[in-house]
Design goal:
This protein is mainly α and 378 residues long. The chain has one domain. The chain contains 17 helices and no strands. Helix 2 packs across helix 3, helix 2 crosses helix 7 and helix 11 packs antiparallel against helix 12. The two termini are 17 Å apart.
C-alpha cells in the first residue's frame, strides 16, 4: 500500500477538499489553482525558480577552474553519442547514469535545490526567475514565460468547476497562445533533429543528469496533473489522485542511500505520461512538449563547454521552435519519437507506478506485464 513520506506536502490540499473551496472564474485560473490546490500552485512557482537556479549552477560549473576534467569527459561522451548508430533523445538510456562528468558540482548543489523544492517560494519570484539569471536573451525569456502562463492556464481550465466545456476552453487558450507568433512555439510536432542534432545536443542530459532529472521530474508532475484532471470521474477522485501524484513526485526528488535514483532519465512526453490528455487535446499537448524540448535545447547550449556565443545560439533555436512551417513532422512520427525511450525513463505513467524499466523486456519475462504496481483509482 502506498504511503506518503511527507504528509505536509498535501495537507492543505486535503483541507481544501474537506471545505470544498470553489475555484475562481475562468479569467483567473492561476488564482483558482492557488486557492484550491495551494501545494500544487506553490510547486508550479518553485519549478520555474528551480530551472533558473539549475541554469545558474551549470554556468558556475563551466566557469570553474576545477571543472576541466569534467568538461573533457563531457565532450568525449557527446562525441561518442554522436558517432553511435541510432543515437537520439528518447533512445534507450542505459548508457546514462545519475553520476555525470560534473558529479562533484552536482552533488554540492543538489541538496540546496531539493531544499528549494520543499520550501515555499516567495510569491512573484517565478515570473522573473529566468530573466534574473542574466543568461538568456530577451526572446527566450519572453517565449518561456508565455509558455509557462499557457500551461498554468490549461491546468486551471481543467481544475475550474465553473468551466463546463473544457475542450472549447482549451481550444480558446491554444488560439490565444498562438496569437503572438514570435513568442509561441509551434502547435505541430517539431522534428527530432532539432533536439538531437544541434551543435550542443545531449550536453544537458549527459553533463548534468541530476539537474536535468530534477527539471524533468517537475515536467512529469505538470503533465501528470493534466492527465489526472482530464480523466478523474468526480471531484473526490480528482483530489485523491492529485494527492497521489504529489506523493509520487516527492518520491522522485527524495534521495535514497545518498542518490536520486528515482528521477526521470528522459524527457517526459505527453503521449507517454498523459495519453488521454493527448487524445483530447493534441495541439495543446504538442505545444507543451515543444516548450519542454526548447528548454532542453537551451540547457544543452548552456552546458556544452565548447559552445560559442550562447545567447546567439539560444536565439537561433528559439526561432526554430517558434517557426510554424519548418522542421515539422507528422503526429505518428512524433509519437514514435517520444515513445522510443519507454515509459519508465520518462517518470512513469500519471496513473500508476513502475518499478522496472519497460525497455528491452519481453512480456513473458515480466511478472505482471499489464498491471501497475501502484494503481490509482480510475
Amino acid at each position: 500500500m502506498f504511503t506518503f513520506k511527507h504528509p505536509k506536502l498535501i495537507s492543505s490540499l486535503l483541507l481544501a477538499a474537506l471545505v470544498a473551496v470553489k475555484p475562481y472564474a475562468a479569467t483567473a485560473q492561476s488564482k483558482a489553482l492557488a486557492t484550491v490546490y495551494p501545494d500544487l500552485s506553490t510547486l508550479m512557482e518553485t519549478h520555474e525558480i528551480l530551472h533558473a537556479r539549475i541554469f545558474e549552477e551549470i554556468e558556475a560549473t563551466n566557469a570553474s577552474s576545477s571543472s576541466a576534467i569534467g568538461k573533457r569527459l563531457l565532450v568525449e561522451a557527446i562525441i561518442e553519442l554522436a558517432e553511435a548508430a541510432g543515437s537520439h533523445y528518447h533512445s534507450s538510456n542505459s548508457h546514462l547514469a545519475m553520476l555525470g562528468p560534473h558529479r562533484v558540482f552536482e552533488s554540492r548543489a543538489t541538496p540546496g535545490l531539493i531544499t528549494l523544492i520543499r520550501r515555499q517560494s516567495e510569491e512573484g519570484l517565478a515570473a522573473t526567475a529566468l530573466e534574473d539569471t542574466g543568461l538568456l536573451p530577451e526572446v527566450a525569456i519572453t517565449t518561456l514565460a508565455r509558455g509557462r502562463e499557457f500551461i498554468i492556464q490549461v491546468m486551471g481550465i481543467y481544475l475550474d468547476d465553473n468551466i463546463l466545456d473544457k475542450k472549447l476552453a482549451i481550444d480558446g487558450a491554444v488560439a490565444e497562445y498562438l496569437s503572438d507568433d514570435i513568442h509561441s512555439v509551434a502547435s505541430e510536432p517539431k522534428s527530432e533533429d532539432l533536439l538531437s542534432e544541434h551543435g550542443a545536443a545531449y550536453a544537458y542530459r549527459v553533463g548534468f543528469p541530476q539537474f536535468s532529472g530534477l527539471t524533468w521530474a517537475s515536467q512529469w508532475l505538470k503533465i501528470a496533473v493534466l492527465e489526472i484532471a482530464a480523466t478523474s470521474p468526480d471531484r473526490e477522485s480528482l483530489y485523491q489522485d492529485i494527492a497521489f501524484a504529489l506523493g509520487t513526485y516527492e518520491e522522485k526528488v527524495t534521495r535514497l542511500h545518498g542518490s536520486l535514483v528515482s528521477l526521470p532519465s528522459d524527457i517526459p512526453g505527453i503521449p507517454v505520461v498523459a495519453p488521454n490528455f493527448f487524445t483530447l487535446h493534441p495541439e495543446a499537448s504538442v505545444i507543451i512538449d515543444n516548450l519542454e524540448a526548447l528548454k532542453v535545447v537551451i540547457g544543452d547550449i548552456l552546458a556544452h563547454p565548447e559552445q560559442m556565443d550562447r545567447p546567439g545560439a539560444i536565439e537561433s533555436m528559439v526561432a526554430q521552435y517558434t517557426n510554424k512551417t519548418d522542421h515539422l513532422i507528422s503526429q505518428m512520427d512524433y509519437m514514435i519519437f517520444v515513445l522510443r525511450g519507454g515509459i519508465y525513463g520518462a517518470g512513469g505513467p500519471a496513473r500508476g507506478g513502475m518499478d522496472q524499466n519497460d525497455r528491452n523486456y519481453s512480456r513473458d519475462v515480466q511478472e505482471n506485464p499489464h498491471i501497475s504496481k501502484n494503481p490509482m483509482s480510475q
